[in-house]
Amino acid sequence: MKSMLNYAGPTHFLRLARVLVPLLATLTALLLGIGLYLAFFVAPPDYQQGETVRIMYLHVPAAWLAMMIYLVMTSAALGTLVWRHPLADAAQKAAAPLGACFTLLCLGTGSLWGKPMWGAWWVWDARLTSVLVLFSIYLGLVALWRTIEDPGKAARATAIFTLVGAVNIPIIKFSVDWWNTLHQPASVFRLGGPAIAPSMLWPLVVMALAFTFLFATLYLMAIRNEILRRRLRRLSILAADAEEQSAASAPRAWNAAYEP
């Protein structure tokens, strides 16, 4: 167990990220190109929604990522509070802005999709409201990281906040089953199999994979930048301490040189 934790340390992570980031970025560009082509040029329009259904290929992957990223943050929060993993708080901090961006994309595309379908840009639907709460939680976590200067205290506070906010994830997932909402029930991951035609399902799957690889790429880069930022901060503190000690010892050396 100890060797595994050592292997997962910041130094080994930086080496791993140096290899994985270019690979993941290449896969992301490839999948995005294929997915966008399938979504906008191959997939047929819906018989009821027409061409507006193509917003689904951006909206649904963004919604999946919004929830998945929060689950990643929840795991990182447990790593901070329970296992004291050296990368856990950096992983949690790096994920929060990305989660906020994907959640904002989910809300924006959902609003564009809802206007022609529901006749309104926004309704206080159970799922819409719970996703808006998720966006607020992400923003709160980002603000909390920036407010608390001590990294250790910030990591513990945000970890507790993240675990408390995790109760919202099942509410988002099962809101369409618990309440009468405008959103349709699950149509991809369900016991009876997907309810979407293959001609529309496969572009959606490719776009979901593209979004996932995009998040993985940005996530590794953000963690790497956070590790380097903390190392630079540590070096700056050490340099400032050394300079302060040098300045304090200079008068003593001067006085000792001229003592009779």
Structure explained in plain terms:
By secondary structure, the chain is an all-alpha fold. The protein has one domain (15-182, 196-243). Helix content is 79%, strand content 0%. The chain contains eight helices and no strands. Helix 4 crosses helix 6. The N and C termini lie far apart (62 Å). The relative contact order is 0.15. The mean pLDDT is 86.
For the structure shown, list the relevant keywords.
260 residues; 8 helices; mainly alpha; single chain
Q: What structural category characterises the helix and strand content? A: mainly alpha
Shape: elongated
* Unreliable runs: none
Order of helices and strands: HHHHHHHH
- Strand fraction equals under 5%
Mean pLDDT, nearest integer? Answer: 86
User: Count of DSSP helices?
Assistant: 8
SSE layout:
Blueprint: H1 2-7, H2 10-42, H3 56-83, H4 88-118, H5 126-147, H6 151-165, H7 168-178, H8 198-257
Helix pairs in contact: 2-8, 3-4, 3-6, 3-8, 4-5, 4-6, 4-8, 5-6, 5-7
Short synopsis of the structure:
With 260 residues, the protein is mainly alpha-helical.
